[in-house]
Structures are given as structure tokens and as C-alpha cells.
Amino acid sequence: MSKRPYNFYAGPAILPLDVMKKIQKEFLDFDGTGLSIVETSHRSKGFDTVMKQARERTKKIMNISDDYHVVFLQGGASLQFSMVAMNFMNGKKADYIHTGEWAKKAIKEGKTVGDVNIAASSEDKKFSCVPDTYNFSSDAQYVHLTSNETINGIQFQAFPDTGNVPLVADMSSDIMSRKINVNQFKMIYAGAQKNIGTSGVTLVVIHKDMVTRENAKLPTMLKYSTHIEKESLYNTPSVIGIYIVNLVLGWIVDNGGMEAIEKTNNEKAAVLYDYLDSTEFYYGLAEKQSRSKMNIVFRIKNNDLEDQFVEQAKANGFIGIKGHRSLGGLRASIYNAFPLEGVKDFISFMKDFEKKNG
Amino acid sequence: MSKRPYNFYAGPAILPLDVMKKIQKEFLDFDGTGLSIVETSHRSKGFDTVMKQARERTKKIMNISDDYHVVFLQGGASLQFSMVAMNFMNGKKADYIHTGEWAKKAIKEGKTVGDVNIAASSEDKKFSCVPDTYNFSSDAQYVHLTSNETINGIQFQAFPDTGNVPLVADMSSDIMSRKINVNQFKMIYAGAQKNIGTSGVTLVVIHKDMVTRENAKLPTMLKYSTHIEKESLYNTPSVIGIYIVNLVLGWIVDNGGMEAIEKTNNEKAAVLYDYLDSTEFYYGLAEKQSRSKMNIVFRIKNNDLEDQFVEQAKANGFIGIKGHRSLGGLRASIYNAFPLEGVKDFISFMKDFEKKNG
User: Fold this and answer.
1) Across the interface, which of A20, A85, A218 has its CB nearest the CB of B27?
2) Which of A138, B311, B334, B353 matches a 20 to 30 Å C-alpha distance to A128?
């Protein structure tokens, strides 16, 4: 078997090894049925337990009150960009906060169905930070933001107060990586493939009041109430996807929940940023106050060395370190399952590279 | 490990054991990377090969010409019900053939966006057969049919000639179970979870001419051109789902392709229907000319014995034999991966049950 490398990919991303070993072990015999999870009916008793547990664990980990529904959908954040706009803007106006590539995609879909007001943007700063002043509309149906941008590596450290206007957040790349106050939001959505599972599952947390505002004329699959009423089983979901999410959520709980996970994530990011700040050889791209703890985007001062860096990193067992094709440079994505030890080993490699090339 | 039962579930359904053993074996090390497939980036070289292979195998198995695009989406047939109507009816008219529960769902979504004409229906026959006369509209944007209905167990043996009006088919429950002439259709879609994989993947085969008629004003994710242009990678797909589809398609090819698979499916259905026809104890619900080769729906003349039958079947290793909750009775779903031997064993059990209770 090939040696397990340190996986810095931005998503689908590293998952806990123990979880994957469990999946492998029971792959031909889920829940004592003699069937594989991939053959298991979504209406079976065994899967019913999985679905309920995934929902309960989500509520527990994120400290979600009973005023919210938790559903698991398909189509990723990309479909949510449209579903949010189709349901809640619907020809009217909404405010969007522009922080980079992912916010831009949400904005694009918003524009297909209504009037988008860019309430704040850090485009003039090349998305090196999140905005700190906002120009909210009084008649906006909602305010949309992207809590973490994977490409430029910036993250909201605190969220704006939007008053009575519902705040909707795409948390695909930092969901369950830190404690947040869910009550600040009327809706949170996230693709599972970074912190809480593999691709093909989208978590949606939505306040009961928000659901009542949905567009009743939309097709059944595009309305949130459909999935809420049927407890994510209106149609056949990704059975293995939700099964994996549930196992990863179990791993989060077993590892101390948000408090412990956040502490480790803080430490992982701190050691790497501290090193970047201590050297002249590398430099980070995000402004300090907006630095992402999930995606650390950096460059080598001598840009020409970057290809060589990526190549040598790979040879040393650090993969996925190349920056996004739209931005270039380097990026270390260190989601929940990425171990602190791996970050430290990577820093050693970086130091070594600096020594040889500095 | 629990003994492997015969899995008669209507979907998610039985998959080839060899395929699942391969998934298990390489679960922690996909393509020699040292990573699991569930951690693998959809932009990686390894997954790129999987995606291309899945597309090519689909074209080969179904004998699809280059006039068609093959894409893999999320959201199941349920989302296709809406996407078809939103893209191609768009306020105008379409013809639908009503054959049961699944056709009804497609019709419901059609009605949310346009004028639906029921061109044929077997509702008056309690959906025990497919219609044989059609009342097509001259101004229909397309004709929609459901090739196989899982609940009442009926299947089109031949497809209607719709002239210049595009024929669109939901083949979720009999895709790649028999040879069909793809050129009769302008679009075919199917959830993967019965014959070609697990849930979370939708196969769409669409003619180039059809794509040009899509509704350009729709959100990006709801337009077929988006997924065609990006070769099913506009957004993160279900990586493990497509990986499994590709392996199942490989199994179909290795087992002789459509010709051999169809032959076995014919034989499986024939032995079971022949037995039903030979006894007074059980009876099939579908009319002979419309009998499904995928879902054999039957009853015991003395309906009261059915609960006992289901229970004893389960004790003997035959699971998922209970009919759909909306119809009651009994159902044996025998998709591609269900072995002939299993059908024969089941008939022995049925005979035995008849002897004890007849």
C-alpha cells in the first residue's frame, strides 16, 4: 500500500483515518445486515438511524436550537446559491458581501432572479481581507456572506450585525471548524467535502421563520419545506454521503466537539502563520485581521521557486500545496482532520527549503 | 460477518459483490495515491480518468453516438423532473404519458412551469399496463415517459413514435438493463441507484439539438449546458458516487455488455413470471404485455398470508420483498446485479411457502 501523504487539498479534503478505516471494515456489512451501505435502502431502519443521528449530532455540535431545521441535500453550495435566491429574493432585492471567488458565484446566481446590492466588497484590496464597512439596504430580503474564502484564504472573524434582515451564510469551507453563534443567522449552508464528510452532501441549517418566506411556486425539489417535511428523504439522498457525514460528526463529538476542534485549528493556523511572519523568504497573502484558519495562502518572495517548492513538497509527502489556478502561489488547506503534527512537519520542510534556496 | 442476503430492494439496490470487494480493498489507497477516494479531489488526475472512463463506458454500453452528451449530475430523477420542464417547456406545452407513481411526479413538476397534456394514461387500468394509444399535441415541446414503473411493475417493451417532437425518458429503474435505440430519444435520464451504481449520481444523456433549446435564463446549476461545457465538473460532483458508477459500468462491460445483461435479465424475469403463471396461489399484477423485467409485483391470493410471507422470506435470506407502501402486496426487484441463482432460490422458497399454506 502506498504511504499516506499529508493531504493539503482544498476539497474534497482529508478525512479522519479512523473514520475511513471503519468504513472500510464494515463496507460489505453495514449494521449487521450483510449488505453494503452502498446497497442500503434510504428507507431502511439502519439508514433511518444514521440520518437521525447526523441531524442530532449537527444540532449538538453547533448548539442549534429547535427553532432551526437541519436537512441534508444534494447539489453542493452551487445549487444553494440559486435556491437561496430563488426562494428568498424572488424578483426583489438582496444584499451580498463580496469577498472573492465564492461570494462572486453566489452573487452571479442572485442576479439571475433579482436585484443584487453589493453591500460591501474587498475587491479593491484584491480580496486580501473581509470588508469592515457595510452599506446595507433597508429593503433587502436577506444579506448573504461567505464565511471563508478558500482561494484567497480570508475568513470572517466576527459577523456583521444585519438587524432585522436575515443573515445567510455559505460556510462550506469552515463549517464546524469553530464555535459560532447560530442565532446570528437565519440560514447556514455548507458542502460537506471539507470539514464534515465527502462530496455529494450539502448541510442546510434554516430557521423556521425563514422557511415561511420561501417561494411556494417553485418546483418541489427547490423548496426547503419539501426536504424539511420529509426529513431529508423526499427523494433518495446520497446514502453513503450521509453515512460518512454521520461518522465524521461522531469523530468531532468524540474529539471534544467544537471547543477542542477549534483549539486545535487555532494552534495549527498559528504555528504556520507565525512561521510565515518570522521569515523574509515566504509571505502570506491575507491581511492579518482576516486570515483564514482553514486555507493558508502564501508565496515565496522569489515566485520562480514555487514550482520547485510544489514538486519537492510532493516528493516529501505533502500534496495539494499548489495555489488555486486563478491566483497562483501556494496554499495549505488544513481542515479539521488535518493533524497538527502534519503542519509542524510541513514547516520543517519549508525551513529546509528556505535554507537550500534562501 | 453477517451472511449476505438476497437483496430485492427497489433501490438503492443490490450491486455486484466483486465491485464492492474492489472498493473495500482500495478504500484507503485510491489509484496508488495513499488517499481514499472519499478524500480525492475532483480535479485530480486519478478522478479525471474515472470520469472520462465512466462517460466512455456509458457511450459504449448504450451505443451512444457523438450527437449526444453524457453528464453525471446530482439530485436524482426528482431534480430532473423539474430541470426538464424548466428548460424545455418553460411556459409552453409538453405531453406526458401517465403510467404510475413516477410519471405522476414528473407530471406534477411539469405543471409548476407550463401546460401539461396527458397524451396517454393507464390510470383507468390501475396502471397495470402501459398505454397503447396516444393523443400527442402538435405543439408539444417534448413527450415525456417513464420507461419502467417500480411500484406497479410495468415497463415499456417498445417506445412510441413521437415524430418530430423530442422524446424524453426517465429510465431510472431500467437503465442499461436491455438494449435500446438511443436515437429514438432526445434525452434520457436515470438515477444510478438501481442498475448502475449507488444513490447520489444522475446520468443524463442529451442530444446536442436539445441543449440548444434550453432556457438560457435559468440559474447556472439548472442548465444542461453548464454541466456539458465543464464535463460534469462545474461544481464538485459526488466523487465516490461516480467512482462506483464507473466500476459498475466496468462490470457490465466485463460481463458481455447489454447483450449478455439483457439475456440474463430476460431469463430471471421469465422464470419468475412463469412460476407465477403456473400457480393459483400467487398472481402477478401487471398485464402480460407490460410486465416489468426489473420489478415483479405480485400478491398471494389470500392477501392475509402476505405479512407472514415477508417475514419468512426474510428469515430465509430474501429481503426487501414487501410491496411499495402505496400499493401493498409483494415485489421482487431483480436489477442487473441480482443473480439468476437468487431468483431460482426464491422460487423454491415460494413453492415451499405455497405447499405449507396452499
Assistant:
1) A20
2) A138
